[in-house]
Design goal:
With 296 residues, this protein is mostly helical. The protein is built from 13 helices and no strands.
């Protein structure tokens, strides 16, 4: 149960990311680059301080790790772009189609049995997120390109969870985290050429640092570690806590309204999360991951 509670706590903390994105006037690709670069630099610093540079040597699954890094770069760019093109509400609603894909695909591509508890919890969780998102929609039409980027955000999110879960038992968490961020930063860097502004202002720098160091390096490390102990299906359901947290954080820090949709939707998501935490059997929480082989 403690690992599921840890994932729920991480998902709650991620609600602050939307607040940071709203307060920082940088293009999507710039935010994604700094998030990745600061996260990679943080993990490199930790490895140096702990004298564990040897852990950064990637000897297995190089191809899969490279794919995860590129997918991560695409995911964050697409998510931030959807926010910029539409709204936080629309971006959240589209991005959180991903747990549905994870619930359907995980038993097919991972050594996980199909979880009846997770499938049952998917109904109130999905309905709750829809209510939270619709509570923030101003009634305007969603631009087709924003719809496309939002759907691709969901697709890349699902791919990230499934790919990472596939190899997480085979690599040190520090190794996987560092190379994922490093490769993703390199992948997104060419997009900086198209940005209106690359350097954050002095007022924006603390928020950008927090985004990279706290909400990527630290929380990402803990998230990848938790993937060793929690099924992908459970991860997907508990991730629904993030948009509810984001709505509450926006109310607390940005002065946004707290509509009935957010309250009711949040209650549904919390109920779904509690269902998974307390009813998902412990023997289903940590399946053995079949190695892909020593080379990839």
């Amino acid at each position: 149960m403690r690992w599921k509670l840890a994932v729920a706590t991480l998902a709650t903390s991620w609600g602050l990311i939307a607040v940071i994105v709203r307060k920082v006037d940088l293009d999507a690709q710039v935010l994604a680059f700094y998030r990745l670069a600061f996260a990679g630099a943080t993990l490199l610093f930790v490895a140096v301080v702990l004298r564990r540079l040897g852990l950064l040597r990637l000897t297995r699954h190089r191809g899969v790790v490279a794919l995860i890094g590129v997918t991560l770069a695409a995911h964050w760019f697409l998510y931030f772009a959807t926010i910029k093109l539409s709204s936080v509400a629309v971006a959240v609603l589209l991005a959180y189609l991903a747990p549905l894909a994870i619930a359907l695909l995980a038993p097919l591509v991972l050594p996980e049995r199909r979880s009846r508890v997770a499938l049952a919890a998917l109904v109130p969780a999905g309905a709750g997120v829809a209510l939270v998102a619709l509570g923030g929609v101003d009634g305007g039409a969603v631009r087709p390109f924003a719809l496309l980027t939002g759907l691709l955000t969901a697709a890349t999110y699902a791919a990230l969870v499934l790919l990472t879960k596939r190899i997480v038992a085979d690599l040190p968490v520090l190794t996987l985290s560092f190379w994922t961020y490093a490769i993703a930063a390199i992948a997104v860097s060419p997009l900086l050429l198209d940005a209106d502004r690359v350097l954050p202002t002095a007022n924006e720098l603390p928020a950008v640092l927090a985004l990279g160091v706290v909400f990527t390096a630290l929380s990402g490390y803990l998230y990848i570690w938790s993937l060793r102990h929690v099924t992908a299906q459970t991860i997907g359901i508990l991730a629904y806590i993030e948009p509810v947290s984001a709505a509450l954080m926006a109310w607390a820090f940005l002065g946004e309204s707290l509509d009935w949709q957010i309250v009711v939707g949040g209650a549904l998501v919390i109920a779904a999360g509690a269902t998974v935490v307390f009813l998902e059997p412990e023997d289903a929480a940590a399946p053995e991951v079949v190695p892909l082989g020593s080379r990839s």
